[in-house]
Amino acid sequence: MAIDTQTIIKLRQMTGAGMVDCKKALVAAEGDLDKAIEILRKNGEAKAAKKAERETNEGIITLAESDGKVAYVALKSETDFVARNEDFIAAGKELAEKLLTVSEEEFKTLAETKIKNELVVKIGENIQLGDYGVVSDKVVGAYLHSNKKVAAIVTLSAGTKDVAVDVGMQIVAMSPEYLKPENVPAEVVDKEKEIATEQLKKEGKPAEIIEKIIGGKITKYYQEACLTKQMFIKDDKVSVEDYVKSAADGAEITSFIKIEL
Question: Which helix (H) or strand (E) holds 104?
């Protein structure tokens, strides 16, 4: 059956699928657009299944904000070329905005359906849904790195979104493992003490000196591993904890998450 070019173009505009795939679908559907769309969707499922074993080491993180909530969605692709594709970026943003309005269970279903039936058909790579979630609190702010591959979301007990965003930038840059010293598991602290003790013994330090030095070693560890004790990247004369207190009327950081591809 002959299919005119305008019908092929129309189907391509409706689905985003390639011209050759559109023509094949229209031939199989005997020119019926609705049936052709169904065929393309079924083919998309087949393509998704075939490509599902391919590694997805690239992609983007997208954020959406509304009324004290921040939604984050990681959309994973095989190549950086696809991660920079306008359709791929738009889909990520659309999914993040959708996550603000539905439950996470409902979101997972609709997101995976959209990826399988639309994105894989349109783009032709293995595309997977990565991490996703919603963070909400009295004050919440998010920072997304310019490469769109790492982000942080921060909540504060008081203050402004801008202060939370500054702290998010700190997290992306310095990768703290814990919020504050009391959050560090005892076994982690014990291991740090053990390592430091062995190092000092090898240096020939006497036991009474080692005991005094260990305290300083643990303090330094906290300054590296704990967000509140890190020196603030915008002013290395103050800690992150002190910056937040001074910038937000005594506020505290209540939580943070870092999202990475």
Answer: helix 104-114
The terminus-to-terminus CA distance of the chain in angstroms comes to 46
Instruction: Check the CA dihedral 246-157-255-63 and report its sign.
Output: negative
Distances (CA, A) of 115 to 76, 77, 90, 105: 10, 11, 12, 16
Check: CB of residue 240 under 8 Å from CB of residue 170: yes
- pLDDT tens-digit profile of 96-147? 999 999 999 999 999 999 998 888 878 878 899 999 999 999 899 999 999 9
Here the tokens at position 164 are: 């939370």
Angstrom distance (rounded) from CA 41 to CA 85: 21
CA distance 20 to 220: 61
The domains located in the chain, with CATH, are 5-51 (1.10.8.10), 53-136 (3.30.479.20), 137-177+233-261 (3.30.479.20), 185-225 (1.10.286)
Are the C-beta atoms of 100 and 85 separated by less than 8 Å? Answer: no
Torsion angle, alpha carbons of 195, 199, 205, 209, to 10: -30
Asked if 138 and 158 count as a contact pair (C-beta separation under 8 A), the reply is yes
Work out the burial of residue 202: count CB atoms within 10 Å of its CB; fewer than 13 is exposed, 13-18 middle, 19 or more buried.
exposed
Token couple for 165: 């965003």
**C-alpha distances in Å from residue 39, one per residue of 35, 44, 176, 181:** 6, 8, 49, 57
Give pTM, 2 decimals.
0.77
